Amino acid sequence: MVGGLRIFTDRVGDGAGQPVLDVNNGEGLMHVQPGVSIVLGNRASESPGTLYISTKQVVWLSDTDRTKGYAVDFLSVSLHAVSRDPEAYTSPCIYTQIETGSEDNESEGSDSECNGTLDLSKINEMRLVPSDPNLLDTLFEIFCECAELNPEPIEEEEEVHNWIFSADQMEDQTLEGEDSGWDTSLNPTNSIGFSNGDHDLTRTVLELQIDDQRFEDAEEMESDSNSTHQ
């Protein structure tokens, strides 16, 4: 499920505090970088805060306002890159694109702010601007490492769709079997033989059927032989 950018205010400790992480589910802190400004969409840059990168999410917390902070899960970060082009942005930064789960991702429009309130569901771009541009490569490498820890989940339908066959597909498989001389009179309980194009598994199933047929033929021959001797 895509969550997009969200407000983050869960802090512990004195002063600016630190973010509360979900340690019970294995979330760990990977990197802390002070002196980082955040830019959401086309809005003005926020005053510098502290960037926290965990194994699950990116958290930015204001150093001066404990009620101000933003977070985004790595599963919602569809792209991250180092930007040093002054035509793209005035300062070198980590540029990210964020999946919001909404069909209308107009982060550049005025719809991202309504009655003075920022609508984070409309924000699909975020820039992180460190006070020291030399840190960009390090931050980028950490982003890459954490992104690898959070691969996009496989939908259940994608996992099982190869096990569902239409009548036309079953007919095509049967015709192919007839042309090759194999016995392909498989009922749906044996359709595992055609899953994911696993021809070795198909061959194994068919060979088992042939062995069964040979076993039956041997029984018939033995029965006929016994009848003759009697």
Automatic annotation (TrEMBL):
Compartments where located: Cytoplasm; Nucleus
Keyword Transferase: no
InterPro entries found in the cross-reference section: ICln (IPR003521), ICln/Lot5/Saf5 (IPR039924), PH-like_dom_sf (IPR011993)
The entry's keywords: Cytoplasm, Nucleus
Origin: domain of life: Eukaryota
A Pfam entry, by short name: Voldacs
Family membership: Belongs to the pICln (TC 1.A.47) family.
The name this protein goes by in its record: Chloride conductance regulatory protein ICln
